[in-house]
């Protein structure tokens, strides 16, 4: 696996007004932007050529993965080697390239924009809203699965039945016969896919999370995939076509059912949960933060809203 694609053209409307002038991918998760976690994940999996598909007002992404000479020189003069290394790290994460999507036509179209850069080899797609814990090698497992079975591989995760309508959903079956070939029980055959099924109509509780390893033939399918749910070109629809016809070139879709730690930064509440879960494990202040959090939960403020919680402009704090 030599290349990865990171779609990053979304407007981040769920986080307005924070994302009015700042790309949602640059919102901090503890002490670095969410997008850096994703690029670091690709690096750990041995992928050093990364293409970000961006849109308007995303220049901050390019700046973050570039050198900042003035800041580096200032830190060098101060002798602050720790912060200097942190600043330089993002610029040393492989070869990060950028291309604009042009029109917001959906995830499938964003992936299609990467065709010239990717070429004719399998490639990974990582969505920036889903962060996978560095101790859980999901992408590495998916790459190995694609090398063993060919076709495309998607990451699946069990979610509560009352939440499956928020995701793409997969109908799966066990690998059998020669196909199984000693496969892990968490590797399954994908028989069908549906994007955000209506409540009560989902074929399973297995949700697609934001990791894919795709056969290059997906581009040919995306070329003739029309708008689907939401009027957008859905990657799920193209994968459905490949799952239905495993005999076509690059056909067949395999799923890896993931039971590790995933942090959803695309929802405000889940974003806060991700901050806490990663914060209590931080090497510099995690233990102190955990101790404070435990004491705060038992405090009057932690048990309920304190009186007089008004912000300076008259709005309630937290709204």
Automatic annotation (TrEMBL):
Record GO biological process: UDP-alpha-D-glucose metabolic process
CDD domains from the UniProt entry: UGPase_prokaryotic
TM annotation in the entry: none
Keywords: Nucleotidyltransferase, Transferase
Domain of life: Bacteria
GO molecular function: UTP:glucose-1-phosphate uridylyltransferase activity
Reaction it catalyzes: alpha-D-glucose 1-phosphate + UTP + H(+) = UDP-alpha-D-glucose + diphosphate
Enzyme Commission number(s) from the entry: 2.7.7.9
InterPro entries: GalU_uridylyltTrfase_bac/arc, NTP_transferase_dom, Nucleotide-diphossugar_trans
Segments forming domain Nucleotidyl transferase: 3-274
Pfam families: NTP_transferase
Family, per entry: Belongs to the UDPGP type 2 family.
Name of this protein: UTP--glucose-1-phosphate uridylyltransferase
Native species: Flexivirga endophytica
């Amino acid at each position: 696996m030599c290349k990865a694609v990171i779609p990053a053209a979304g407007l981040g409307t769920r986080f307005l007004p924070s994302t009015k002038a700042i790309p949602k991918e640059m919102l901090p998760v503890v002490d670095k932007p969410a997008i850096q976690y994703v690029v670091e994940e690709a690096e750990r999996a041995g992928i050093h050529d990364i293409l970000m598909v961006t849109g308007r007002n995303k220049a901050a992404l390019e700046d973050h993965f570039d050198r900042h000479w003035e800041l580096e020189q200032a830190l060098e003069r101060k002798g602050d080697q720790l912060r200097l290394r942190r600043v330089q790290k993002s610029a040393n994460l492989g070869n990060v390239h950028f291309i604009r999507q042009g029109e917001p036509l959906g995830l499938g179209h964003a992936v299609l924009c990467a065709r010239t850069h990717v070429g004719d080899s399998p490639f990974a797609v990582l969505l920036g809203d889903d962060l996978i814990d560095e101790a859980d090698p999901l992408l590495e497992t998916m790459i190995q699965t694609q090398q063993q079975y060919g076709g495309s591989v998607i990451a699946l995760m069990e979610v509560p039945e009352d939440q499956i309508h928020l995701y793409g959903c997969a109908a799966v079956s066990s690998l059998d016969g020669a196909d199984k070939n000693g496969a892990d029980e968490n590797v399954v055959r994908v028989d069908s896919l549906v994007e955000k099924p209506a409540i009560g109509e989902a074929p399973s509780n297995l949700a697609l999370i934001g990791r894919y390893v795709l056969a290059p033939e997906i581009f040919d399918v995306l070329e003739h995939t029309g708008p689907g749910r939401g009027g957008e070109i859905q990657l799920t629809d193209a994968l459905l076509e490949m799952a239905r016809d495993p005999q076509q070139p690059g056909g067949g879709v395999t799923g890896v059912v993931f039971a590790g730690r995933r942090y959803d930064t695309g929802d405000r509440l889940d974003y806060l949960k991700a901050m806490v879960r990663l914060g209590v494990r931080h090497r510099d202040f995690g233990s102190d933060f955990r101790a404070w959090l435990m004491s705060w939960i038992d405090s009057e403020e932690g048990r309920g809203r304190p009186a007089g919680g008004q912000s300076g402009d008259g709005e309630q704090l937290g709204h």
